Sequence to fold (278 residues):
Amino acid sequence: MSTAADDRRSGLHLPGLRDLAVRAAREAANWVAENRPPGRVDVSATKSSPTDVVTDFDTRSERLLRQHLLGARPDDGILGEEGASVDSRSGVVWVVDPIDGTVNFVYDHPCYSVSVAAQVDGESVAGAVVDIPTGATYAAVRGGGATLQTDPAAARRELRVPEPPRLDQALVSTGFGYDSGLRESQARAVAGLLGQVRDIRRVGAASLDLCMVATGQVDAYFEQGLNEWDRAAGGLVAAEAGARVVDLDGGRPSRRMTLATAPGLHDELVDAVRGCGF
Ligand code: IPD
Fold:
């Protein structure tokens, strides 16, 4: 794994990438917030399953992100949830989720976000998550910490994961994939965990789940089956706030598992999650 010193040597200015991620994510988030109609939003297509939906807002938001990011850095690549795919000539790839929490967005539930991360060699080095309904902006840079700005006029607050409780007092969030077979096995496993923790939350937007670990609004988050765009920015925010963000074996988070928690709760949570059959 490379370090902040390696990034300086390679000439990458990570705070500049973070600030670009913030500007691009805010522009897309503001556009979505200003243009969504009241009530429900129409679904324009489905993807991996009939419940995995896309709206015109996802597509338009991704286009805005692509224009903003490549307008500023034309040699970078893009990997987007709605199909944006541009090879990188600079070594930097922007991993974007134009609306994370699309089902919340469709139903007008408040938790949905724009998520933008700059990656080098598959690792996030800078990123931002903007909570669309509130405008709250989470940002992070590798080796430089994580911040929350509740609105553009407010000061940035440094984020630090609080000391966690023991597992039986922990509030743990999770999510479920779009494949019905996977959902059934995830539900059986979560049922086993429910008696071992304070409670379970299903927020519906992985990027915000990860940011909530950073703020201490939940004590831990885990989910199987995430895509890179779901966790690329939020995972960096959680890690830079002091959380361990790993898979079940302590390696990089993967589709098999993304688990984020304060270090003091990690081992107990991993044992419990494994014990439930994940
Ligand atoms: C989904 C959300 C959800 C998580 C799913 C993701 P999308 O992303 O983050 O919380 O449980 O695994 O696919 O489809 O809304 O961008």
Notes: The chain is about 35% helix and 25% strand.
